[in-house]
Amino acid sequence: MNRRDVLKVGAAGAASVALAAPAIAQNVIQWKMVTAWPKNLPGPGVAAQMLADRITALSGGRIEVKLFAAGELVPGRGVFDAVSEGTAELYHAVPAYWGSKSKGILLFGSQPFGLLADEQAGWMVHGGGQALYDEMYGRFNLKPFLCGNSGPQWQGWFRTEIKSVDDLKGLKFRTTGLASEMCSKLGMAVQAMGGRDMFQALQSGALDAGEFIGPWTDSALGFYQVAKNYYWPGVGEPSSAEECAVNTEAYGALPDDLKQAVAYACESLYNPVWTEYTTKSGQALKQLVADHGVQVRKLPDDVIIAMGNAAGEVINDLREDQDELVRRITDSFLAYREIVKDYKPYADNGQMNARVMDYKY
Fold it and tell me: Which of 20, 144, 323, 330 sits a CA distance of 20 to 30 A from 317?
């Protein structure tokens, strides 16, 4: 081959590369993620963007995920239907918002007097929870994944002190999920709304109290400006899992390696999201007390016991649900709760009790 032929081959090769590049670019899968949160809301809004970025990264750029915050493409509470119907490919939200679809869904996010964040992941991975999660969401054309957790939530912000169970009767209170059913059984006037609406309702007196997440997110929303009594423990949500659900057709169309990339993006964020909540809520609580005069108060024991009894009634209602799948989900949750309920007092409780004893460390 002479020099002229080499130049011809080189030119042809360069042309083929130039033509191939746009073809590869055209094969990038573009997904819309809709979320239940304002853009970059500390906590869930931040976590949603992390997930969008991680799916893109782990797919090697073959899936580009564009995030649409609540209200940008669909309302926050409309994301479930939007992805189910194919308006968007995936969403980021919490299972606690979808009780109108099925009461069984609520157990995958949080349960009054239920599972802590590590226990929730344990149930899903080792206790049969994921298979039930898939079965339930499959009814709605969705493939679900847990992708984070808030850790223990707080009982919330109260305009006045709570001294007994009687103080709860008629109390206008914002909460969601199964916690709302627990509170309703105690005579509380439960309302569901977003965090920004909750602030306005507390400010106007339309609400007497409400819970959203915990110190990090709650401080960003400014609840301390309109209610100074911050109550713990948040027995309505000992943890609250965040989820990503993908449209079944969109997920099924992916090659196996990209399916794995989406699944691992969700799984790999569970601990980073959970530990970020823990870290930043610890920092935020100190500031709420020191800088904003927040009064941290413990629920009276009789209130906790009354809530526990009401929560038991809620779970019994689920065990008797007409939907056989809801009954199976509830039984699986209770079986796993029994395992960890007997173990954790020796493990976690023992360590926490030892930590607060009077010694020089």
Answer: 144
Tokens found for residue 40: 């970059």
Residues 6+ apart with CB under 8 A from 332: 123, 127, 128, 129, 132
Q: Give residue-wise pLDDT tens across range 74-127.
A: 999 999 999 999 999 999 999 999 999 999 999 999 999 999 999 999 999 999
CB count, 10 Å around CB of 56? 19
Q: Are 145 and 241 in contact (CB under 8 A)?
A: no
pLDDT in tens, 1-43: 443 443 333 344 443 333 333 333 468 999 999 999 999 999 9
What 3 state SS string does the chain have? CCHHHHHHHHHHHHHHHHHHHHHHHHCCEEEEEEECCCCCCCCHHHHHHHHHHHHHHHCCCCEEEEEECCCCCCCHHHHHHHHHCCCCCEEEECHHHCCCCCHHHHCCCCCCCCCCHHHHHHHHHHCCHHHHHHHHHHCCCEEEEEEEECCCCCCEEECCCCCCHHHHCCCEEECCHHHHHHHHHCCCEEECCCHHHHHHHHHHCCCCEECCCCHHHHHHHCHHHCCCEEEECCCCCCCCEEEEEEEHHHHHCCCHHHHHHHHHHHHHHHHHHHHHHHHHHHHHHHHHHHHHCCEEEECCHHHHHHHHHHHHHHHHHHHCCCCHHHHHHHHHHHHHHHHHHHHCHHHHHHHHHHHCCCCCC
The strand pair at 142-149 and 241-247 is best described as antiparallel
* Amino acid at the residue 272: P
pTM of the model as a whole: 0.90
pLDDT of 129 above 60: yes
Extract the tokens encoding 155. 């009982």
The owner of tokens 């020796």 is 346
Tell me the C-alpha distance between 274 and 152, whole Å: 10
Residue with tokens 């002229």: 4
Other CB atoms within 10 A of residue 86 CB: 12
What percentage of the chain reaches a pLDDT higher than 90?
93
CB 70 within 8 A of CB 126: no
